[in-house]
Write a structure and sequence with these properties.
5-stranded antiparallel beta sheet, 5-stranded mixed beta sheet, alpha+beta, Beta-Lactamase
Length: 446
């Protein structure tokens, strides 16, 4: 959209104005000649002379009036285009989900969008013309280094740092920076696009928890080896002890047996302590927000596979469930991780949900992977059972998801789709009016 008359259009505008003025002057003189010839040709020389002067003045006035109107009309058109362009630019800027700040070489704010107002709490009119208000005192040197880098680099992407709110709270953010080259007499400007990464950091913690559970699966194989050796030795010693007792010999081997039994007991206790999950903390939450947080984490993995992700969870936003967001994020992460591993390159995943009968939240996760073979259905929820190649999975994902759904009095169901791939259906009951706990447990469907 145009923001003013460009140098390319200016010659054509002047040419159009000049030709129209010449045409108007020629038209005035021609009409005047016809009128003089028709009505004033018998006048004396002095009167004709005054008529000629009048014709020149009238032609000049009409030309000035025409040129003024023509220029004013063009100016109004350009002002309207400029206003429309600005409104369009402001609309795009304010519809961006990230916080955007435009600042000059002295770090004074030239633009501040709605997302920045919501994230940091500073009004646009409050910050325009002032130094960036959301930069903590200890981060100015870092910002100056980034500005110096932009003199040689085109962009600085995904730089993790901190910004502060109007209330003084520091929040972790990922910032992208770019430099706008100066044009004509305009100063140098820089753009900062900031995204709140607190959900990303929370998801990192959930992934660490999943890694912990995955490591527990890997430890199970080692545990079997560690426990097998002392148990085998104890069995041999028991056989020897039985023979010694029959012959009336000493029973000193009992101390060794007790020591090894205590070793096995301590090892199992440490393993149980490692695998213990934190206590369930239920509160009213929106499932669509939980799902969107998990999807944000997996989008880079889907991009690497050139996969398509479709989401239709708007119906879930109107109602809330009683649940633990940390556990639910871990559950959806496990399910989505399985789907990402199952789909081929260029595959498709669709996540959609709805409220069923006004009392159950139902979420479907569809993929176009190979599905599950008929012989494997009885074992899909067994811990440590997996169809993935060695080293690619521990078989804990569905077991974890099943346990978390049961904690929320819900069900999880798997089925192969007719068009190919797998559908995972999670159903979680909504709390009754005035209730603070979940509804009675629903029988698990597999």
């Amino acid at each position: 959209m145009k923001t003013g008359m460009s140098p390319t259009n200016r010659p054509w505008f002047l040419l159009t104005l000049g030709l129209s003025c010449l045409t108007l002057v020629g038209l005035v003189f021609s009409l005047w000649e016809l009128i003089e010839y028709r009505y004033f040709r018998d006048l004396d020389y002095v009167t004709l002379h005054y008529l000629y002067i009048t014709r020149g003045i009238a032609g000049a006035l009409l030309t000035v009036i025409w040129a003024s109107w023509f220029i004013l009309r063009e100016r109004r058109r350009q002002e309207q285009e400029l206003e429309q362009s600005y409104e369009h630019y402001r609309s795009i800027l304010n519809h961006m989900p990230e916080a955007v700040a435009l600042f000059d070489e002295s770090y004074q704010v030239a633009e501040w969008n709605d997302a920045a107002e919501r994230l940091f709490g500073f009004d646009r009119e409050q910050v325009l013309g002032l130094p960036l208000p959301n930069v903590p005192a200890g981060r100015w040197a870092e910002l100056r280094q980034i500005r110096d880098r932009l003199e040689t680099e085109q962009k600085v992407l995904d730089h993790e740092t901190e910004r502060c709110t109007a209330q003084g709270e520091r929040i972790p953010v990922a910032a992208n920076y770019s430099r706008i080259p100066p044009v004509a007499n305009r100063p140098q400007f820089y753009v900062e696009v900031v995204q709140d990464i607190r959900p990303r950091l929370r998801m990192r913690d959930k992934l660490l928890e999943l890694e912990k559970l995955t490591l527990m699966g890997q430890m199970a194989a080692g545990a079997a080896h560690h426990l097998n050796t002392p148990l085998t030795a104890m069995l041999l010693q028991v056989e020897m002890l039985r023979g010694q007792m029959q012959e009336g010999g000493p029973i000193e081997e009992l101390a060794t047996i007790e020591q090894r039994i205590r070793f096995c007991q301590a090892f199992v206790q440490n393993l149980l302590q490692f695998a213990r999950r934190p206590q369930l903390q239920q509160k009213p939450i929106a499932l669509d927000e939980v799902i969107e947080t998990v999807l944000t984490l997996f989008r880079p993995s889907l991009n690497l596979k050139r996969a398509t992700l479709e989401t239709e969870c708007e119906d879930l936003g109107s109602r809330r469930i009683l649940g633990d967001p940390n556990h639910l994020e871990a559950m959806f992460s496990a399910l989505l991780s399985n789907a990402v591993d199952a789909i081929p390159t260029g595959g498709r995943i669709r996540v959609h949900g709805r409220i069923q009968a006004d009392r159950i939240a139902e979420i479907h996760l569809d993929d176009n992977g190979p599905g599950i073979a008929d012989l494997l259905w009885p074992r899909v929820f067994e811990p440590f059972f997996t169809t993935k190649p060695s080293g690619k999975g521990t078989g804990l994902g569905l077991a974890i998801a099943q346990n978390i759904v049961q904690e929320h009095d819900g069900t999880i169901q798997l089925q192969n789709r007719k068009e190919g791939g797998l559908r995972v259906t999670v159903r979680i009951p909504l709390p009754k009016e005035g209730s603070t706990v979940g509804t009675p447990a629903v029988e698990m469907q597999i």
